[in-house]
From TrEMBL:
Keywords: Copper, Metal-binding. The keyword Metal-binding applies. Pfam families: Cupredoxin_1. This is Putative Auracyanin (Fragment, part 2). Residues 6-82 form the EfeO-type cupredoxin-like domain. It comes from Nitrolancea hollandica Lb. InterPro entries: Cu-binding_ET, Cupredoxin, EfeO_Cupredoxin. CDD domains: Cupredoxin. GO terms for molecular function: metal ion binding.
Length: 98
């Protein structure tokens, strides 16, 4: 994905698709979260490359967006659904920064 690009992530019951992707170092991109499930889901990064928390929520059938900043090449940003029990059920993923 090029800097300034958009990655679309589908959230359904206890999974993200894709749950792993790459992004360029020291760049900003947009995450488009599309909830194709039947319960509330979110996309959370505790600390992106700028040190800020990223958190967006989408009701079933809805979509929303957020900007994410990457850091240095070789780093990894972890994302997950912060709804109770969702991360523990495997609703998480990684962004590899290159």
């Amino acid at each position: 994905m090029a800097s300034g690009g958009t990655i679309e992530i589908d959230a359904t019951e206890m999974s993200f698709t894709p749950n792993e992707f790459t992004a360029p170092a020291n760049s900003t991109f947009t995450v488009k979260l599309k909830n194709t499930g039947s319960v509330l889901h979110d996309f959370t990064i505790d600390k992106d490359g700028s040190g800020k928390k990223v958190e967006i929520k989408a009701e079933p059938g809805a979509e929303t967006t957020a900007e994410v900043k990457t850091g240095a090449a070789g780093s990894t940003l972890e994302f997950y659904c912060a709804q109770p029990g969702h991360k523990d059920a495997g609703m998480d993923g990684h962004i590899k920064v290159q």
